[in-house]
Amino acid sequence: MSIRVLINGVEKDLDVDPEMPLLWALRDVLALTGTKYGCGQALCGACTVHLDGQVVRACVTPMRRAEGRSVTTIEGLSPDGSHPLQKAWVDLGVPQCGFCQAGQIMTAAALLAKKPKPTDAEIDQSLSGNLCRCGTYTRIRAAVKKAAGQPEE
Amino acid sequence: MNRLSHPWRPPILCGWSSALVLLAALGCSKPAPEPTSRLSDVLPQAAPHELRAVEAFNIITDRADRSRALFLEASRVLLHPRCANCHPDGDSPYQGSQWAPHDPPVVRGPEDRGVVGMECTSCHQDKNLELARVPGAPGWHLAPRSMAWVGRTPRQICEQLKDPSRNGGKTLAQIVEHNAHDELVGWGWKPGWDREPAPGTQESFGAIVAAWAETGAECPSEEARP
Question: Which of A38, A52, A108, A109 ranks highest by number of CB atoms within 10 Å?
Fold first, then answer.
């Protein structure tokens, strides 16, 4: 069965099982490996992408849900890594091992799109489903505030 | 002894006892308050995973008392974790069978569907995911605060259900329909991966709620428990 989906602005017809997780299609079919496989149970946030602008965990989102809709991955957040969050991430040296960071940035991007000046509490609530085993949370929050043009502390 | 509507009542209000003449006579003659009886005192026993059939309640001849008993039976479903976990007493749902906080931590947000980045449907799909063990059903979301059930008595829930200002503006007929056929409600009996379903079936629960409405939608006493 062919499923038509817009991936980072490019229309794709994918011959995949409708129940295949979106993450499998991204990584194994389209070779978009920026989105990570973490827990496979929607518990860690490493696979976070946008579906029509809404945050979803790609590891539990079946391809049939994405049919006819727009998917944005970390590769499509900006054409050249110039999204304010990406720049802030680099400026503050946020990542340690880096495995969770694509998911963190994608959730933060959805937050800033809806709340350009989020409070600390709003940042914490929105990012509470994105785990970082290295514990870079304070730098993540500072980078989100920097990208929002707010004082970092 | 066999009263579901109040721990004790003046003799003139002993309609609930009318089906059991001897017990009624004893109950009406006692002036002192007595412990509130439970459904199992007057109705056939029901296993924890079963609901009694509507016909079983016909032994209660007083219509209002039968209505109260029917609601108590319905409350076994309403207060079951499969249902009450998402009718929380605060801004976050519970999970499991022991009122554990939802993990990862989530909040209801302005429309009871989470906040940006942590919407309910960021993770929950339109059906259960057996391998990932994530529960799902169409329209997954939290009940509004006005419909909180956790920590409430059956009577308090009954009054909430009937109050259009707290039930989403629903009529009794719409409440019956919602309970009998709504897909998200129905998830309670098809919860997937190792989760204990609510008692009975959606069909039998819908019949209990319909019978409660048809008998006057009476609410049990504050002390009454199923």
Answer: A108
